[in-house]
Amino acid sequence: MFAALGDPTRLALVAKLSAGSPYSIAQLTTGSRITRQAITKHLRVLERAGIVRCVRAGRESRFQLDPEPIAELKQYLDFVSEQWDQALGRLKAFVED
Amino acid sequence: MNDRIEKRIELKAPVSRVWRALTDYREFGTWFQVKLDGPFVAGQISRGHITYPGYEHLKWEVVVQKMEPERLFSFTWHPYAVDPKKDYSQETPTLVEFRLEKTAAGTLLVVTESGFDKIPRDRRQEAFRKNDGGWAQQMKNIELHVTQAT
Fold first, then answer.
1. Predicted confidence band at B54 (pLDDT cuts at 50, 70, 90)?
2. A80 in contact with B at a CB cutoff of 8 Å?
3. How many CA atoms lie less than 13 Å away from B73 in the CB half-sphere?
4. To 5 degrees, how large is the angle CA A30–CA A35–CA A37?
5. What is the bridge-based pairing of β-strands A60-65 and B107-114?
6. ipTM
7. What phi and psi values does residue B52 have, to the nearest 5 degrees?
8. Count of domains observed in chain B
9. Cβ proximity of B75 and B96 under 8 Å
10. Are A76 and A67 in contact (CB under 8 A)?
11. For a FRET experiment, which of A9, A86, A88, B55 has its CA 20 to 30 Å from that of B22?
């Protein structure tokens, strides 16, 4: 998932999609210097990472953000970070006597 | 969002004191809250059980990587591998590195844990049970997060 998010174009797509509703490829390509084909490739990377879902609206594919994987990963990292803060607090008390 | 966590802490103690607290298995156990069976040896598995309240008697195991005296101590492990029925050995472990640097006030300790991308999703959920409802709040978090990253 880090690989999926570690790209500025994909991050920008996620930011656009964070409004919540599904967007068509055309809508996501508007205002971007990147080609429709490249945008589609990036969307597929995000889809494989579980961050984005493809929903069909008639004959058109639309893409919608699934916030859960990212939110969950962030929550987990925050938890691990907190555990380290606590452990290092105990280390500090231990060595500083 | 990085796949690594880095912590920097200034300790008012000499490097040798901090090194001992990290690499002497009894001292490590005291502050880390784990009871280890024996000394840390580079390249070998170190086992024990957790003494952290709420997780008592759960098995603890790391594979020691490097022990460069007073500079670097590292190990790999499966953090929060708390289900006694599960075999975690097939998963890629994360790497924990303790780096020490002498400073005017004592020691700068930099702790890095990396490799989180490899932890399976259901195991992340085991680490804590916290149900966070609210689509709107999650969306807000995402947006904040990605805009901070760019």
1. confident
2. yes
3. 21
4. 115
5. unpaired
6. 0.79
7. -65, 130
8. 1
9. yes
10. no
11. B55
pLDDT in tens, A39-79: 999 999 999 999 999 998 888 899 999 998 888 888 888 98
Residue B148 forms contact with A (CB below 8 Å):
no
pLDDT tens-digit readout, B65-105:
999 999 999 999 987 666 666 777 777 889 999 999 999 99
Contacts of B21 (CB under 8 A, 6+ apart): A91, A94, A95, B27, B28, B31
Nearest CA in chain A to B126: A76
- Partner B contacted by A86 (CB < 8 A): no
CATH of the domain at B40: 3.30.530.20
Q: Measure the CA–CA gap between A6 and A3, rounded to whole angstroms.
A: 5
**Which residue of chain B is at minimal alpha-carbon distance from A1?**
B117
Q: Is this structure's pTM higher than 0.80?
A: no
Question: Is residue B10 a contact partner of residue B107, using CB atoms and an 8 Å limit?
Answer: yes
Domain that holds residue B44: 4-149
